[in-house]
Amino acid sequence: MSTVNYANPNKDLTVRVFDNFYNYDVNVPADEYDIVYSYFRSVMSTTRAAGNFTVSLFRVAQDTNVPALTLLDAMKGQTGITLTASLAYYLNSIRSRATLLGVNASSTPNQYAARLILQ
C-alpha cells in the first residue's frame, strides 16, 4: 500500500543551496532546509529575505562545523533587528576582519599612512 508520506529511498533527499554572488554551493538535507526556511519565512516579511537568511545560515553552519538546526535554535524567539544582529555576528565570525557586517563606525587611518596607500 502506498502512501503520500512514504519517502522513496531511490531519490536523493537533499536540497542544493547556492549563492552565485559568493560562489557558494552545498547540498543539505531537505528536511533541515524546510525547517530553516519555514522559520525565516514566518519571521521575515518577504520570501527573498527568508531565502537569503536561509542560505547565510547554512553557510555559517558549514564553515563553523555547527549543525544548522543548532544555530537556528539559538536564533529562535528573535525578530527584526535582533535576528539580523545575531546573523551578522555569525557571519562576521567567518568573514575577513576588514569587511565586518553591522559595524557603523568607520575607521580613519593615520594621515601619513593613508598617503602611502596606492589606489
Task: Describe the model.
It is a single chain. The chain has helices at residues 30-43, 47-64, 68-75, 80-94, 111-115; strands at 14-19, 24-29. It has a two-stranded antiparallel ribbon with strand order 1-2. Mean pLDDT is 75; it is low at 1-5. By secondary structure, the protein is mainly alpha-helical. It is elongated and about 65 Å long. Helix 1 packs across helix 2 and helix 2 runs parallel beside helix 4 (80-94).
* Number of separate structural domains: 1
Largest sheet: 2 strands, antiparallel
Order of the strands making up the biggest sheet: 1-2
Total number of helical segments? 5
Poorly predicted regions: 1-5
SSE topology:
Elements: E1 14-19, E2 24-29, H1 30-43, H2 47-64, H3 68-75, H4 80-94, H5 111-115
Antiparallel strand pairs: 1-2
Helix pairs in contact: 1-2, 2-4
